[in-house]
């Protein structure tokens, strides 16, 4: 079952939930507002896709922090992300095969929704 990470009241997240539900795809939702993100999970994401992919550099949180991206690396930004989870691109999906998909794009999402992911079960 895939896991979708984000913030429940985010408009993009709402679109993602609607699409997943419409496709009958079962998922677990990890709400950053209710459950923190553990360092090990973030380390895994950073090592696999890099901070530039994970951080929403167009978002308000990123702009308010006014960080110099030329001086950042995965290690130096990790604590900043853990303290500002809203700066993570939403949604962030971890698929059944452990691949990571960032952002909501229907065309992209249709590629990872084969029949093996479809489930008659309800989303959680």
Helices and strands in order, then pairings?
Blueprint: E1 2-6, H1 11-23, E2 27-31, H2 39-49, H3 51-54, H4 60-65, H5 74-83, E3 92-94, E4 100-102, H6 106-111
Parallel strand pairs: 1-2
Antiparallel strand pairs: 1-3, 3-4
Helix pairs in contact: 2-5
Order the strands across the largest sheet as they lie in space.
2-1-3-4
What is the number of E strands? 4
H/E order of the elements? EHEHHHHEEH
Look at the helices and sheets and give the structural class: alpha+beta
CATH architecture: 3-Layer(aba) Sandwich
Question: What would you call the shape?
Answer: globular
| N- to C-terminal distance | 10 Å
CATH class division: Alpha Beta
Low-confidence stretches: 115-124
Helix content: 40-55%
Look at the structure and give the mean pLDDT.
Answer: 88
The largest pleated sheet is described as: 4 strands, mixed
CATH homologous superfamily descriptor: Glutaredoxin
Q: So how many helices?
A: 6
Topology-level CATH name: Glutaredoxin
- How many domains? 1
Strand content: 5-15%
Rg over CA atoms: 15 Å
Structure description:
With about 120 residues, the protein is of the alpha+beta class. It has a single domain, classed as 3-Layer(aba) Sandwich (Glutaredoxin). It is about 40% helix and about 15% strand. The protein has a four-stranded mixed beta sheet, with no helix packed on it. Strand 1, helix 1 and strand 2 form a beta-alpha-beta unit. Helix 2 packs across helix 5. It is globular, with a radius of gyration of 15 Å. The relative contact order is 0.23.
């Amino acid at each position: 079952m895939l896991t979708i990470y984000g913030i429940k009241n985010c408009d993009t997240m709402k679109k993602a939930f609607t699409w997943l539900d419409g496709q009958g795809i079962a998922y677990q939702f990890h709400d950053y507002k209710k459950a923190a993100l553990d360092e090990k999970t973030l380390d895994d994401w950073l090592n696999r896709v890099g901070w530039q992919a994970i951080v929403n550099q167009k978002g308000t949180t990123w702009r308010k922090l006014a960080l110099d991206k030329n001086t950042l690396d995965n290690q130096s930004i990790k604590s900043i992300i853990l303290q500002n989870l809203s700066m993570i691109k939403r949604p962030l999906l971890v698929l059944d095969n452990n691949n990571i998909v960032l952002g909501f794009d229907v065309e992209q999402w249709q590629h990872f929704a084969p029949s093996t992911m479809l489930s008659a079960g309800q989303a959680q």
